[in-house]
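Friendly challenge for the regulars: who can give me the structure tokens for this chain first? No prize, just bragging rights.
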Amino acid sequence: MGLEVGGYTDTPDWPKMGPSLLIATCLILAIRTAKWSSHFNEHTSDMELQREIDYAAHLAGRVLSTLETCKPSFLPQKKQAWYKPDDEDVPK
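First reply, four minutes later:
Bragging rights claimed.
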């Protein structure tokens, strides 16, 4: 005997948001480092670049988190089924 679907809820479709987060991080990094010298190895350490990458990822994650809580309709959604409890699931 299978479970009976009680309805559906809209939830964020996380696999579809992964590429968006990656693109957003890269855009933030590109904007923040646009004025760096093209010979960054001579003037900029790897630690500075790593800090910029970490900060870009942090900013993109915060924006995505804010959108998820305040404006979830902006993000891709999927329908997720929820199931009605059967007699075995109801406490006696």
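Residues 13-83 form one domain. The two ends are 21 Å apart (CA to CA). Your move, everyone else.
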